[in-house]
Design goal:
The complex is a heterodimer of chains A (210) and B (85). With 210 residues, chain A is mainly β. Chain A contains 3 helices and 11 strands. Chain B has 2 helices and 2 strands; from the N terminus they run αββα. The chains are: A mainly beta (210), B alpha+beta (85). The interface between A and B is medium-sized, with 27 and 19 residues.
Chain lengths: 210, 85
Amino acid sequence: MPRKMLRTRWTALLVGSALALPALAGPETFDFKDPKNGNKIEFKLDAPAEKIAGAANDISGTVTFDPQNPGATRGKIAVATASLTVPNALQTTTMRGSQWLDAAQYPQITFQATDLKNVKTNGDKTTADVVGTFTLHGVSKQVTIPVEMKYLKDKLGERLGGNQKGDILVITSTNFSIHRADFKIMPGQNLDKVADTISLTLGVAGASPK
Amino acid sequence: MKKALRILAVIILLAAVVFWAAKGGHRGWTVNNIALETPDPVTGLSGVTWERVFIPGCDFLAAAALVAGVMAAASFLFRSKKAQN
């Protein structure tokens, strides 16, 4: 075989492999510290005498997501306790204070995903029940959170408005609940004003620059 | 002094009610933070930032009523001027 033809074949093989690489791309790591401050976790408490609703927006963490195998998703999302805010300033201070969440001693609320169940993928969307360890107020409990993950390929530049290339992973949850008594937050106290059940909703986006 | 304290108590109470009503007559707790939602067309999420505001609520009215009540009660510590012949 002539040398020139051999070289052409090698070049074609290399180009073909390079083109096929994205399709075979393995797991990507997404950083959830959003420079656009677009991430939030909302919480609601519905006690007989009072309703409390607020949100937290200082979110960080990393998630490893494989578009070819969403069921293998793992990672950790952290929320700064001091970013939990409600409309009333006094309530916000009390909530973050030593009697309740104790933000000084427990500066982060975290969720570490360890397993995914009931994984269903349709196009760029995956729904799953994420099993993991939820740590709040220094107490860790295993919880299951139903989530939807949306893989937005090559959308990072569009979002950040620059030449940055990369992908986005959007994770949203439907309502899930925890009980403050399980996390030793004033168990059994002030139940008329501060409900034991805390409903949480998650809406976060992580970036995987290339 | 007695009369002055009572007038001041009424003024404080009225001013608080007028201010509360002018700010929307909010019946819940005083609002100091308002969540501003910023939709993101790419992700479909809405981020939240907090804007500092002051919308007085029922606790503001209660505090004003307490101050007015203390002033009105204090007015009883002063003797009334007796009419002199």
